[in-house]
Every structure is written in structure tokens, then in C-alpha cells.
């Protein structure tokens, strides 16, 4: 419910008296609180919906058929909600946050504070094979953006509050405050400065405390490490890192490929039917694909492979080791199909949970194979945890986030050395083939990705087309010098574009080119604009990127360049104006 105008003015005046820094601190506290409440609400809504529809016994026997149908019903409800009620695209939450920061001056629609919760509950609560983390990050970020706009903060502080919302969301959903901060710095690419780290800390810690207060000490999955780290296992952790990096690349490429395939199906309900049937078949064969998959990860951590294997139709083959390994390999390589089909067919969810799911199973399979065929004795549960970190580091290009997430959910740093080694190797391996993470790759291709490079970040934010000057008086090449002098007398500019009858640019006339002859009336009729015009050193097309614009000014040394649209004259862009805009944006971006 919106605050009354007089109350809003009172709050704004009170905050203004507190000073800009204190305003951000207070709002970061509020964002952390609200983000945690949203995370708790979403997790409980998913849990309640899941239990209501599919209790513990429905995974077996005839209930498996119903289990395969629930996700289709959930995606149908999600499509109806998004298409006919919300009428906005809310999928791929983290990419949307990044796009808002780079292209929409950190403006996220206010409905994102609640719409992702509803859509994700319908998708995952009914068994969709995706995660809740990306939608809750979008929710938290939207809370930060909405509060920042409400109190009329500048771009830099609104962006910081978006980061606070993301940090609070991750911290609240995992009860991992350090992970929340690092996630914001690595994935959302906020700058690590004193002015930014304190609000992030406030928001992240607040969210963790609220989550502990409302949900108790339990987290999505937790496991205590009891065995001591063995130096002799270092080569196997390095091997796991390489495998995780290659598997990360497979997951990222396949996700983008499959979702692009679903986008080609124009009919929304045909897309839903295609993805729903495929997902239903996968869940019928492998019930572990139902929902986020954290239950399966916990079973592997506890060494309970019977529950994972026994819930499927392959239970009677559990004594056959080749079938056993093939089953878990299918979980690894088909999970991407299940998660991409959920999102591609109309569901709303993220790839955070699928990444951890695949990483955990990958770690289990690697350790199991090495134990059987290499004559070693590797702890499966440790490899499950380290495999999760390796997969996250490779897919998200966020090794620090991966390291600290696993460290925090295990309640300590007993795994720190293998976590660092595996995550670093996985990140290096994945980055060798793909420069950008799954969240960033499509934005980078479109030139919409803000990075830690302030120069590039400001250039991405700049809409140079708004700086085009269209008030210059056009002349024709057939005009005489006398005609040109009359135009000069009523113009405030010293530059005149020469165009033909179709508005195609032919050249330019500068005041300096006619200054010495403009008062010689004897040549007014005999001299035409064609005799006086020159060809500009280059031109800009409206479709060109800001990088090309800046490079063209640097290369030519020109102070003004004509702007064309398919050869037709649009206006002029001045070097002084574009660099002045650049400087203003740089000040807004850095706060310096």
C-alpha cells in the first residue's frame, strides 16, 4: 500500500536531514530486512505447495505418474499469471537485474517485489526443475530499486541498494551473509569500495539474522565435516576442478541452446505443451528432477544412494554397478534439459539450484569411480560439496561465491583448501572457452554488460543518440552564396549541412569557409554552395555503438560529425557535448 504524500514528504525530509551516507545505511537495513522476509516467504510457499501436492509417498508406485503431471500444471498456471495478469517477462531474474543497471538506470518495475514470488511458487511448488535463488535476487533487487526511487536517490545509490537487495536475498535464502556480499560483487559486478561494502554488510547480515529468527538454524542443506583434509587427495581435487569446468561449459551452452529452441516456438501453449511433456517424461524416469533437487544432494551427503536410486524405475537394477553409474550420469547430463525445459516452456526459476545439483552429483560420481578403479579411498560427501563449488565457479564465473557458500553451509573452513583449488581450476577451465558467465554472455554480446571497468561501464550507460543536435539549418548544393549569407544571418550556428531533395547528406559548409567572401556581393550569384562545401572526415550511423562513436572522434580529430540513418541526414554530434555527457555520467557512476 502506497504511503500518503504528506507522510512521504515527512520521511524524505527526515532522511535528507540525516545526510546521504546515513540515508543509504538506513535504507540498506530496510532492504536487508525486506529481502529476508521475501526469501523466507518464498521458501515456505514452495515447501507448503510441494507438500500439499506431493507428499513423501507420492514418489513411489502409481504416484510417479501424478508427479510427472504436476510440473505441467504449475507451468500452465505460471504462464497464465505472467501472460494475462502480469503482462511482463520476469524470467532470468539476475540477467534482468544486470540489464536494468546498465540500460534502465537501475529502474526495476515495482511489481518485481512480489510477482517473482508468486510465479516461482507456482513453478517450483508444482515440481518445476529449477531454483528459487534468481527470482528472489530479482525480488530483493527490486525492493532496493523501489526504495531508492521512492526517496529520489541518484543512480549510484539506487544501484547500491539493488546490490543490497541481491546480497540480502542470497544471505537470507542460504543464511550465508559473506556469500551474499561476494555474490553481489562477483555476479552483479558492483565496485568494492568503502562506500559500497558497508551497506552491503548491513543488508546481508540483517537478512541472515532475520532468516535465523524466522526459520531457525536449519538451512537448505547442511553438513558437518568430520574427516581431516588429506594432502594426498590434492591431485583428485584438481582433476575434479577440470571436470567441473568442462561440465560447466556444457551446462551453459546447452541451457542457452535449448532455451533458444523453445523461443522459436511462437505459440505460447504449444511451447508449454512441448516443454511440459519432455519434463514430465524426465521426472517419470528420474524423480530426482522433481523440484529444486536439494533433497537429492542431502541424500548423497548422507551416503543414502538407495533413496536416490530407489525412487526411480531403475530400482531393480541397483545391484548392477554399470547401471548405477549410468543412472547418476543421466542425472548430470539430463538435468540441464529438465531445467531449460522448465524455463523455456514458461516456468519462472533460476539455474542456481540446478548448478549445485549437477555439481554435487558430479563430485559423487568422480569420487565413486576413483574409489573403484584407482584404488584410492576418497570421501564421497566431501567431493559432493567441493563438486558443487566447482560447478558454481564454472557456470557463474564466481569462484569466491562458490567457496564461501560451501564454507558457510558446512559451518566452517575445513574444506577451504580443496574448495579453493577445485573452484579456481573450474573457473580457469570454463573461462578458457567462454569469457562470460551464463548470466553475462548474452548481455555482453549486445553490449549491455556493465563491468568493473568504469570507462566501459559509463559508455554502456550513455545513450549518445539523445545528444544529436538537429537545430542546424540545412542548405542545398544549388543554393547561391547570396542565399547562404541570408541563412547565416539568421542562424546561431557556424555549421550548415548540405542535403539533396531526398535529405541525403552531400557535404557541409562551415562559417570559416565563407567568412572571407561572404561580403563580396559581386559573387553572390556566380558562387554556389557546391563550390564551398567540403566532405566531412567521417560520419556516424544511428545504429552504431558508443564505442564506435568515441573511436571515430578520436581517429578523425573532428569536433563535429554528421549523423545519418541509412544515408539520410539526421543531425550532428559534437565532441564537446558527448564528452561533457560522459563526464557527468562518470560522476554519477563513481560518486567522485
Descriptive notes:
- The protein is mainly α and about 600 residues long.
- The chain has 25 helices and five strands.
- The mean pLDDT is about 85.
Output the keywords.
592 residues; mainly alpha; three-stranded mixed β-sheet; two-stranded antiparallel ribbon; 25 helices; 4% strand; elongated
How would you concisely characterize the structure shown here?
This protein is mainly alpha-helical and 592 residues long.
Please give the number of β-strands.
5
**SSE-based structural type:** mainly alpha
Q: In which range does the helix fraction lie? A: 55-70%
General form:
elongated
H/E element order: HHHHHHHHHHHHHHHHHHHHHEEHHEHEEH
Could you give a short account of the major beta sheet?
Answer: 3 strands, mixed
Radius of gyration using CA atoms only? 29 Å
Q: Identify the quaternary structure here.
A: single chain
Mean pLDDT: 85
State the low-pLDDT regions, or none: none
How far from one another are the termini? 36 Å
Summed up, the helix count is 25
> Which sequence of strands runs across the widest sheet?
3-4-5
Provide the β-strand percentage band: under 5%
What is the element layout, followed by pairings?
Elements: H1 5-18, H2 20-53, H3 63-86, H4 93-103, H5 115-125, H6 133-150, H7 155-174, H8 177-186, H9 194-215, H10 234-263, H11 268-285, H12 294-301, H13 305-310, H14 321-344, H15 352-373, H16 380-396, H17 399-409, H18 416-433, H19 441-446, H20 454-461, H21 481-489, E1 495-499, E2 505-510, H22 511-514, H23 529-532, E3 540-541, H24 546-556, E4 560-565, E5 568-574, H25 575-590
Parallel strand pairs: 3-4
Antiparallel strand pairs: 1-2, 4-5
Amino acid at each position: 500500500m502506497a504511503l500518503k504524500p504528506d507522510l512521504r514528504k515527512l520521511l524524505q525530509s527526515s532522511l535528507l536531514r540525516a545526510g546521504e551516507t546515513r540515508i543509504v545505511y538506513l535504507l540498506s537495513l530496510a532492504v536487508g530486512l525486506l529481502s529476508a522476509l521475501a526469501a523466507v516467504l518464498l521458501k515456505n510457499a514452495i515447501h507448503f505447495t510441494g507438500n500439499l501436492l506431493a507428499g513423501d509417498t507420492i514418489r513411489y508406485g502409481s504416484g510417479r505418474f501424478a508427479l510427472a503431471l504436476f510440473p505441467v500444471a504449475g507451468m500452465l498456471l505460471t504462464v497464465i499469471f505472467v501472460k494475462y495478469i502480469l503482462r511482463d517477462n520476469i524470467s532470468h531474474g539476475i540477467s534482468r537485474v544486470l540489464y536494468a543497471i546498465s540500460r534502465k538506470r537501475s529502474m526495476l518495475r515495482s511489481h518485481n517485489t512480489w510477482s517473482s514470488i508468486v510465479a516461482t511458487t507456482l513453478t517450483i511448488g508444482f515440481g518445476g526443475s529449477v531454483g528459487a535463488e534468481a527470482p528472489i535476487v530479482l525480488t530483493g533487487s527490486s525492493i532496493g530499486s523501489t526504495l531508492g526511487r521512492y526517496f529520489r536517490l541518484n543512480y549510484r545509490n539506487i544501484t547500491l541498494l539493488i546490490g543490497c537487495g541481491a546480497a540480502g536475498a542470497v544471505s537470507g535464502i542460504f543464511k550465508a551473509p559473506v556469500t551474499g556480499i561476494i555474490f553481489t560483487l562477483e555476479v552483479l559486478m558492483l565496485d568494492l569500495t568503502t562506500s559500497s561494502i558497508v551497506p552491503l554488510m548491513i543488508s546481508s547480515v540483517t537478512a541472515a539474522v532475520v532468516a535465523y529468527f524466522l526459520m531457525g538454524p536449519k538451512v537448505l542443506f547442511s553438513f558437518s565435516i568430520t574427516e581431516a583434509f588429506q594432502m594426498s587427495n590434492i591431485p583428485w581435487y584438481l582433476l575434479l576442478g577440470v571436470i567441473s569446468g568442462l561440465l560447466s561449459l556444457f551446462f551453459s551452452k546447452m541451457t542457452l541452446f535449448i532455451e533458444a529452441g523453445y523461443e522459436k516456438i511462437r505459440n505460447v501453449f504449444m511451447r508449454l505443451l512441448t516443454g511440459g511433456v519432455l519434463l514430465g517424461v524426465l521426472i517419470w524416469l528420474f524423480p530426482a528432477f522433481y523440484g529444486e533437487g536439494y533433497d537429492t544432494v542431502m541424500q548423497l551427503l548422507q551416503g543414502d544412494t538407495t533413496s536416490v536410486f530407489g525412487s526411480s524405475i531403475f530400482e531393480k537394477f541397483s545391484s548392477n554397478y554399470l547401471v548405477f553409474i549410468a543412472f547418476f550420469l543421466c542425472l548430470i547430463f539430463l538435468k540441464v534439459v529438465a531445467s531449460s525445459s522448465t524455463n523455456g516452456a514458461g516456468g519462472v526459476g533460476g539455474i542456481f539450484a540446478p548448478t549445485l545439483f549437477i555439481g554435487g552429483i558430479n563430485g559423487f560420481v568422480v569420487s565413486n569411480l576413483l574409489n573403484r578403479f584407482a584404488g584410492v579411498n576418497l570421501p564421497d560427501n566431501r567431493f559432493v560439496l567441493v563438486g558443487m563449488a566447482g560447478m558454481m565457479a564454472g557456470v557463474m564465473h564466481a569462484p569466491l561465491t562458490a567457496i564461501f557458500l560451501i564454507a558457510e553451509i558446512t559451518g566452517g573452513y575445513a574444506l577451504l583448501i580443496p574448495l579453493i583449488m577445485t573452484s579456481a581450476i573450474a573457473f580457469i577451465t570454463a573461462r578458457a572457452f567462454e569469457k562470460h558467465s551464463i548470466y553475462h554472455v548474452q548481455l555482453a554480446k549486445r553490449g549491455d554488460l556493465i563491468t568493473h571497468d568504469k570507462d566501459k561501464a559509463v559508455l554502456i550507460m550513455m545513450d549518445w543518440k539523445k545528444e544529436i543536435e538537429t537545430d542546424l539549418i540545412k542548405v542545398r548544393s544549388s543554393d547561391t552564396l547570396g542565399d547562404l549569407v541570408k541563412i547565416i544571418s539568421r542562424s546561431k550556428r557556424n555549421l550548415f549541412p548540405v542535403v539533396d531533395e531526398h535529405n541525403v547528406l552531400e557535404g557541409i559548409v562551415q562559417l570559416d569557409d565563407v567568412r572571407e567572401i561572404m561580403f563580396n556581393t559581386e559573387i553572390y550569384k556566380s558562387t554556389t554552395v557546391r563550390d564551398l562545401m567540403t566532405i566531412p572526415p567521417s560520419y556516424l550511423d544511428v545504429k552504431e555503438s558508443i564505442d564506435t562513436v568515441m573511436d571515430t572522434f578520436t581517429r578523425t580529430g573532428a569536433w563535429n560529425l554528421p549523423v545519418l540513418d541509412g544515408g539520410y541526414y539526421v543531425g550532428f554530434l559534437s565532441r564537446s557535448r558527448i564528452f561533457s555527457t560522459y563526464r557527468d555520467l562518470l560522476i554519477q557512476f563513481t560518486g567522485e
